[in-house]
Automatic annotation (TrEMBL), chain B:
Name the record gives this protein: ATP-binding protein
Gene3D superfamilies, per the entry: P-loop containing nucleotide triphosphate hydrolases (3.40.50.300)
Keyword annotations: ATP-binding, GTP-binding, Hydrolase, Nucleotide-binding
Keyword Membrane: no
Pfam families linked: ATP_bind_1 (PF03029)
Length: 108, 204
């Protein structure tokens, strides 16, 4: 399937704030009276029944990240998914976070 | 920013962090992501064609048959609340426009070098140095051979004093994990010295 047919001819996401590690989750239950989702939308909804990040979704769908972001915008606007942005990283004050990463890696 | 949009909520707790695996063409980035990731590395690869690439790029890299045109993606679950994502940057120069986007929000980077041709990662080192993004240098020994000490490599790359240089084998999981630990230790040391908390920096 060609990307532009999936996205109705749009070439840019309208929500540039889907980062590669923004996590998306299908709303459960899905909104009432929502139109039947398009096949690619339905695939995404199945894949994000549990939280999954954008990059992983793109890889599983075998679609470019930019295309996936557009599809996610549609789903977000339709109230079918929620999206969670990663916490912004601040270099000087995230000792706690870094220590957790360090401890986790040490256990591998 | 996402903060203005009620549908895209800030995470209440840290849950996803990202580290870049960067370096020149064919230095072992994809291999490293695959070695430490708990999922098979997800990526888009395209057969290497002479049309898109100077033939001389392949000299001295007999192992090289395919090149990454999108990004490598790996996942390491560090706990119930924390997942580390690894992104291998594309090595070929014509895809470097992607690095800027990839760098946003990253904790830091591993710049991997092929010990046989370290110059192929000079540009990657410059990239992170100029943007003040913390990085460590991972020296991929190819065939497990490490003819140079970290100090010799630091000198030959003209790295700032104190930049960690770690000898590694991109095919080995524990070795790659140790490079990641080296980066995080460096971030912790930098964070302690960098101030912001008012506490004196501590060694280690
Ligand atoms: N013998 C040996 N081969 C390696 C090692 N690391 C990587 N390779 C091989 O070298 C080739 C290049 O490695 P990749 O991991 O694809 O390198 P890359 O940096 O991802 O390459 P690009 O994304 O195209 O820039 C592959 O065929 C690997 O199997 C190593 O430590 N030893
Ligand atoms: Mg690669």
């Amino acid at each position: 399937m060609r990307p532009f047919t999936l996205t109705g001819g749009r070439t840019r996401p309208s929500r540039a704030d889907f980062t590669l590690i923004t996590s998306v989750t299908a709303v459960d239950p899905q909104p009432e009276r929502a139109a039947r989702p398009q096949p690619e939308h339905a695939r995404i909804l199945r894949l994000c029944a549990k939280p999954v990040v954008v990059a992983e979704l793109a890889a599983q769908l075998d679609l470019p990240v930019s295309v996936v972001c557009i599809l996610l915008c549609d789903l977000l606007e339709a109230g079918r998914i929620t999206a969670r942005a990663p916490r912004p990283i601040s270099r000087t004050s995230d000792m706690d976070l870094l220590q957790k990463v360090r401890d986790g890696l040490g256990r591998l | 920013m996402a903060g203005s949009d009620p549908a895209i909520r800030e995470a209440p707790a840290p849950d996803s962090v990202k580290i870049l695996i960067a370096g020149g063409f064919g230095v072992g980035k994809t291999t490293m992501v695959g070695s430490v990731s708990e999922i098979a590395p997800l990526r888009t690869e395209e057969p290497l064609t002479s049309a898109g690439l100077g033939v001389d790029d392949l000299d001295g890299i007999p192992e090289k048959h395919a090149t990454t045109v999108a990004l490598d993606f790996g996942r390491i679950t560090l706990g119930r609340e924390l997942v580390l994502y690894l992104f291998g940057t594309p090595g070929q120069q014509r895809f470097w426009f992607m690095w800027n986007d990839l760098a946003i929000g990253a904790l830091g980077a591993v710049v991997l070098i092929d010990v046989r041709r370290p110059e192929s990662s000079f540009a990657a080192i410059d990239f992170f140095e100029r943007r003040d993004i913390p990085f460590v240098v991972g020296v991929n020994g190819f065939h497990g051979r490490h003819p140079y000490t970290p100090e010799e490599i630091r000198d030959s790359l003209a790295l700032p004093a104190g930049t960690p240089v770690l000898l590694c084998d991109a095919r080995d999981r524990a070795s790659c994990r140790d490079v990641l630990i080296g980066l995080v230790d460096e971030l912790i040391a930098g964070s302690a010295h960098g101030g912001g908390t008012g506490r004196p920096g501590r060694a280690g």
